[in-house]
Write a structure and sequence with these properties.
The complex is a heterodimer of chains A (250) and B (308). Chain A is an all-alpha fold and 250 residues long. Chain A is 83% helix and 0% strand. Chain A contains eleven helices and no strands. The longest helix of chain A is centred in the first third of the chain and has 34 residues, at 17-50. The relative contact order of chain A is 0.13. In chain B, the strands form three sheets. Chain B has a six-stranded mixed beta sheet, sandwiched between helices. A four-stranded antiparallel beta sheet of chain B has the order 2-1-4-5. In chain B, strands 12-13-11-14 form a four-stranded antiparallel beta sheet. With 308 residues, chain B is α/β, with parallel strands linked by helices. Chain B has eleven helices and 14 strands. Chain B is elongated and about 80 Å long. Classes of the chains: A mainly alpha (250), B alpha/beta (308). Chains A and B meet through helix 1 and helix 5 of A and helix 2 and helix 3 of B.
Chain lengths: 250, 308
């Protein structure tokens, strides 16, 4: 049932030009950034060779690539998630799901899986780029996988926030703006944490960026992984509750 | 007779506004229940509650022996619903859309294609099955909505204004289809087209301001409609007492100058007696017409005086 909903959602996404254009634009920008990182690496290569224990291509090319991808996905995910529930409500197609023998959690999870499926394509393309470096160098696989995992977890968190805001908003644009604002806030939260000594710890813990960077540095801390899983789960549960309450007071 | 839908004491509030108040009814297999009411009477709200799109504020709904709140999945399994706006994904073709609906309703994988073809044939959609829903006319979209509701062969079918946007020929076809489906399903349909109820329903309910004001079988309704009245037009004003003395006349209402409506309960040759009386008194008979009470009349009298 979840799969049927996810499949329909993905079909609709790929039938519209939105998914294709996002894939194309993202790939273009990320490839450009990837190339500039290689450019930088080649420029510094001779100097790096003289330093002992110098950062290798994994540090100079792979980590920044994933970092950039994270920021771009922060912009893009709200665009992908804005329509999922909001548009069904606007087009009155939600009635079809509500009167079918499907429970709310299946609806939300189906939608979540569909978006993850599409973003999975983007992730795959991002992950393939560093592998091309194997032609002329070596990768730190541990760090590479940590980066990929970090990005996957981060995107899952983005998606769940986007779906929740899509379930509240009355218009897709509002959902997009709302989820973008919320994600950006969570992203930059620890900027203030660094300057103000007082409440820094809580803000630092809440910040998405902090956990993402921890994982990116190659430190696979279960606390960070659990943070992302709880974060996604929390917003998925909120979306389910929101759909349930729709029936009670419309 | 198996009772398929049972609604008991349904209430629904929107804030302080009570949209549906103490509505109870049941539909058995083989019955087609017509839900009539003016705009904003609570028809759609009631239907949404029956289909689990809205939770009732109070009351109980049982569909095919499953309580809608306690066992929503089993109850909805035997339910086909066409909302007032057909729920269509415009970017899919008719076939793709129906395939998705079949999956949603857990139609076994091997039977999906069989079910779809049956629904397509029943709703006359074979020729457009490979076209995008967005490009279809309103009538075809409405039929796709109906196909979606009957696709998984549910015991209970709820149709909210199914003939809206169809041309007269299609309306006729859909009414025939509803009659045919009514034989082995329980159907509820809402409409404000009164002849539709007479044509395709076995039972009728009129709802106004959230309350049920009439629940009748269609033959019962037809009997109601044969209350006898005669319209009389004369040249001179009549003396009501003289006419009143004719046996069988209940009352005489003066509508305007020399226009009268006479209510009576005996149906034999009353017109003749009235005519003779008018001629005897030299009032000048201009017109004498029996009035058959139409469904519209019943509808209007019932909905305009809600307290009675």
């Amino acid at each position: 049932m979840i799969l049927a909903i996810a499949r329909r959602e993905l079909t609709s996404l790929f039938l519209s030009p939105l998914a294709w254009s996002i894939l194309a634009v993202l790939q273009f920008i990320l490839a450009y950034l990837f190339l500039t990182q290689i450019e930088t690496f080649i420029a510094f290569q001779s100097r790096l060779a003289q330093i002992e224990n110098a950062p290798g291509i994994s540090d100079i090319i792979v980590s920044p690539l994933f970092g950039n991808a994270a920021i771009i996905l922060l912009l893009v995910t709200p665009l992908l998630t804005m329509r999922v529930i909001c548009e069904e409500r606007r087009n009155k197609t939600l009635a079809l799901l509500l009167s079918a023998p499907v429970s709310s959690y299946e609806i939300v999870l189906g939608k979540y899986l569909a978006i993850i499926g599409l973003i999975g394509c983007i992730l795959l393309l991002v992950c393939l780029m560093p592998l091309s470096l194997l032609l002329g160098g070596e990768l730190d696989y541990g760090k590479y996988f940590c980066n990929a995992l970090a990005l996957a977890l981060l995107v899952s968190a983005f998606t769940s926030v986007g779906i929740y805001l899509s379930s509240i908003a009355s218009h897709p644009t509002i959902a997009a703006i709302g989820s973008f604002g919320l994600l950006l806030l969570l992203w930059i939260m620890d900027w203030t944490a660094n300057t103000q000594a007082g409440e820094s710890e809580l803000l630092e813990y809440l910040s998405l960026l902090q956990h993402f960077q921890n994982l990116q540095s190659g430190l696979l801390d279960s606390a960070d992984v659990v943070y992302f899983i709880l974060f996604s789960l929390g917003f998925i549960v909120l979306s389910i509750l929101r759909l349930e309450s729709d029936r009670l007071n419309q | 007779m198996t009772v398929l839908i049972e609604a008991q004491n349904l209430y629904r509030y929107y804030g302080d506004h009570c949209a549906v108040e103490d509505v109870s009814f049941s539909v058995a297999k083989g019955e087609v229940l017509g839900f009539l009411g003016p705009n904003g009477a609570g028809k759609t709200t009631t239907m949404q509650m029956l289909c689990g799109n809205l939770a009732p504020s109070a009351g109980q709904i049982t569909i095919n022996n499953h309580d809608l709140l306690d066992q929503p999945l089993q109850a909805k399994q035997s339910l086909g619903y066409l909302p007032d706006t057909p729920p269509l994904y415009r970017e899919l073709t008719v076939y793709e859309f129906l395939e998705y609906c079949a999956r949603l309703h857990r139609v076994p994988f091997r039977q999906i294609s069989k079910h779809i073809h049956k629904a397509l044939a029943r709703c006359g959609l074979e020729t457009v099955s490979q076209r995008l829903i967005a490009n279809l006319s309103k009538g075809f979209q409405q039929r796709t909505g109906i196909a979606q509701a009957i696709l998984h062969n549910p015991e209970v079918i709820v149709l909210d204004e199914p003939t809206v946007g169809l041309d007269p020929l299609q309306i006729q076809e859909i009414r025939e289809l509803i009659k045919e489906l009514g034989a082995d399903h329980g159907i509820i349909l809402s409409t404000h087209i009164l002849p539709e109820v007479q044509q395709s329903c076995t039972h009728v309910q009129i709802i106004n301001q959230g309350k049920l004001i009439l629940a009748e079988t269609v033959p019962g309704l037809n009997r109601l409609m044969t209350t006898e009245r005669i319209k009389l037009v004369t040249r001179q004003p009549i003396e009501a007492e003289k006419l009143q003395s004719i046996e069988g006349i209940d009352s005489i209402h003066s509508e305007q100058d020399n226009h009268y409506v006479i209510h009576y309960h005996l149906d034999h040759q009353i017109a003749e007696k009235i005519a003779a009386c008018v001629l005897d008194n030299g009032w000048g008979l201009e017109q004498i017409t029996p009035i058959k009470k139409s469904m519209e009349d019943i509808f209007i009298t019932l909905t305009q005086t809600p307290a009675t």
